[in-house]
Amino acid sequence: MKLWIIAIVLLVVAAAAIWGWQALAADPGLLSIRIGHTHIDTTLVFAVFALLATWIVLSLLWRGLRWPVRAWQSRSRRRSRKRFAAGLTALAEGDHRRALQALEKASQYSELHAPALLATARAAHARGDSERTETALDEASRHAPAAALALRAQFLLEHGNAEAALALLKPRADQNALPPVGWRLLAEAALLDGDNTLALRAVDALASADALTPESLAALRARVLAAALAGTSDTEALNALWSGLPRAQRAMPEAIAAYVRRAATLGQPLAAMDEIESALRKQWSERLVAVWGQLGPAHADTRLARAEGWLAAQPESPALLLTLGRLCVQEKLWGKAREYLEHGLAHAPSAALWETLGECMNGQGNAANASVCYRNALRIARGESTQALSDAARAPLDTRATIAEERDAHGMPRLAIPKEN
Questions:
Q1: How far is CA 87 from the centre of its chain?
Q2: Any residues with CB less than 8 A from the CB of 148 and at least 6 apart, and which?
Q3: Nearest CA among 400, 398, 404, 376 for reference residue 389
Q4: Are 186 and 154 in contact, with CB atoms under 8 Å apart?
Q5: What is the pLDDT of residues 225-251, one digit of tens each?
Q6: Which CATH number fits domain 268-396: 1.25.40.10, 3.90.1570.10, 3.10.450.50, 3.90.1150.10?
């Protein structure tokens, strides 16, 4: 289709040229110019060609006269770009003095003025030169106000001044005039300042802007949701926030764990248990299983029985073995607790397992082994080797299935029949 359009256009141009040439050949026109005693008579065609030739000559002459200026500007542009690149490289290397020298020179070029000033502020801040940092940010705010504002807020957060960063970002957030990095900083500042509602709003803005990867956004949202749920004042506020969340957010393990802990603290252990059981029916979560054992003394016997029911499907789960040990300690089932905890330590040693085993030893009246357990909890947290218990040579609890599943040649399951000796 495009080829036909081009052909038609060329035919029209050719026809117009032929018609124009015939018209000019029949009557080339007459142009008479009189200036004082000077009188020039010529044809219109010649006058047009003469004007075109004069324009071409003058253009070439002007270009020739401007060539030194253009060459100097091109050289200055190349030098500024080289300085800017050298400044960024020095900034990445941590050579902030050299970075400042290169970036301040690069900022003299108009095209690099704003980015060079922002990089200068970063270098000065990293060097601890607050006066130079403020000067660079003030100048950069005239050309890139949003970027300068976000960078200033970032520096305030790095100094631990979340309140000042929040005061700087919130007015622009109310106008929906923050760049993506501004919303990210606002979420962090609001979390530190305890304004969880504003933090949730900032995360939603980041999601709308598609500024983060799904993984980074999910991690940030999980932190904000956990803080918001943990910060609710009463049961009514907790349930209102939880029921108002989208289903996808209520399925996040971090959010469920925060809701469950807060619900248990506010005297709603049954609601907390129901939420965990519902989530675990859909997908196994080590985090939620660990929280199952941290709900306090309420319904400990029921939670213990339910956790033992999960053991058949997850016999080597470190979180489940820790939870079983904790619940047995709460119920003062010392021997059972020790078996669960030692089985967990045999597969995945952790400070929490050693600490809970120490509580179990105390319950049994074995103060010496309890001290060893508590020391081992500190050692494993520091990455050091642990010390064996004085009577550790005990058979751990065997949580493996007693009957293994076998399949025949057609893939049908069948039970293995023990062989007689």
A1: 27
A2: 118, 121, 137, 140, 141
A3: 376
A4: no
A5: 999 999 998 999 999 999 999 999 999
A6: 1.25.40.10
Residue 419 has pLDDT above 50, yes or no: no
pLDDT in the model for residue 397: 41
If pLDDT is split at 50, 70 and 90, which confidence band does 219 have?
very high
Q: Topology of domain 76-143, per CATH?
A: 1.25.40
Give CA angle at 111 (109, 112), nearest 5°: 70
* Overall fold of domain 144-238: 1.25.40
Q: Alpha helices, DSSP H only, in 283-418?
A: 286-292, 300-310, 318-330, 334-347, 351-363, 367-381
- pTM (2 decimals)? 0.69
Give the Cα separation of 235 and 268 in Å (integer): 8
User: What residues contact 203, with CB distance under 8 A and at least 6 apart?
Assistant: 187, 217, 220, 221, 224
Give the pairing type, strands 405-407 and 413-415. antiparallel
Q: Which helix (H) or strand (E) holds 42?
A: strand 38-42
